[in-house]
């Protein structure tokens, strides 16, 4: 209060009521609604006994399986119908498969002008030696953007569903102790194997991501490999070591940055493509690592999102919070 | 080569049926893992190494690990040990009962 006004006058003002309501001091029900404990419904003992007896008799009659022909008949019918249902589904699927075109035939509907266009002019238009990557990240980059967002949304859902309540854990014991209670801590064999294996796995993942436009691979597979390597490292050395460099905050920042970068890069190419403007980004010499325009950047973005997602899935399943 | 492919396809069907019929959940996950590995070999034979890498990393690696963690969370892996412990406890109870009876 900057000006001094008497307390009784202040209590009439709107700000006083607002502050009381904000602080929760004002219970709107007290003095206005009549509150009293409910009376227990009273029943005679004989009625209660009768009801219990009837219920017991009914249960005995139902669970007398030897004589209850309804239950046994239902079980038989259930088995017959379930077998019937399975056979029906198998038959439907087999019939549907028999109508598919034969594998590898030249006149299949797969071999149309779209595939021809991709194969013939994919290298000139995208600059990627690997046609699959050229298709995924150039012709159909919008689909891949949607897939990355689906992964991110799935992780957010897992974060919401598996998150542990922090208030409950404060009184109890440490989370890590309770989670790893049946496991040997600091297992020498696992740790030695992880020390040998984790660097090659992660380097292989980076190679798969960076070489996505030159050979088999790409953002999704490389990211999954890196995520698997991180999971192995976490299993061997525990949460305390991984949380030094990778926490939930790191994951959120990394994936939002990667998705934003993807959006910006693709918006640029959509804008130039829709307005028939020549793209500023050079395609480079096919076969060099710095070639094929935006594909390398998009691969790195997708790889970061996928690696973080795989690792976060595992951590959320293990611990529920990080 | 055709024989090899047919063998792999047969193994695939075998794995799929075995995974659904196996009583032990841990065995089911292991069979599922081998299914993914065979599938990735088939992808290579179908000349799509991109998919093979992804199948091996996601199907055999990350998914199985997530299954293992889930099984551990619902105490399905340690079932045999828990059963043994409970049986021990029952034996102890049986031993105790006559003592209390006496």
Q: Distance between the terminal alpha carbons of chain A, to the nearest Å?
A: 43 Å
Structural class of chain B: mainly alpha
Number of DSSP helical runs of chain A: 14
The quaternary state of the protein chains shown equals heterodimer
Q: Which range does the strand content of chain B fall in?
A: under 5%
Most strands sheet of chain B: none
Level of helix content of chain A? 55-70%
* Total count of strands of chain A: 0
Greatest interface by residues involved: A-B, 21 and 17 residues
Overall pLDDT metric of chain A: 82
User: What about the largest sheet of chain A?
Assistant: none
Described by the principal axes of the CA atoms, the overall outline of chain A is extended
Distance between the termini of chain B: 75 Å
Mean pLDDT, all residues of chain B: 79
Helix tally of chain B equals 4
Radius of gyration of chain A: 33 Å
User: Percent helix among the residues of chain B?
Assistant: over 70%
Shape of chain B: flat
Keywords for this entry:
heterodimer, A: about 325 residues, mainly alpha, 14 helices, extended, B: about 100 residues, 4 helices, flat
Describe the structure.
The complex is a heterodimer of chains A (322) and B (102). Chain A is an all-alpha fold. Chain A contains 14 helices and no strands. Chain A starts with 6 loop residues before the first helix and ends with a helix. The mean pLDDT of chain A is 82. Chain B has 102 residues and is mostly helical. Chain B has 4 helices and no strands.
Produce a short descriptive summary.
The complex is a heterodimer of chains A (322) and B (102). By secondary structure, chain A is an all-alpha fold. Chain A has helices at residues 7-10, 14-23, 45-63, 69-98, 113-126, 131-139, 141-162, 166-171, 175-179, 188-210, 219-237, 239-242, 248-274, 295-318.
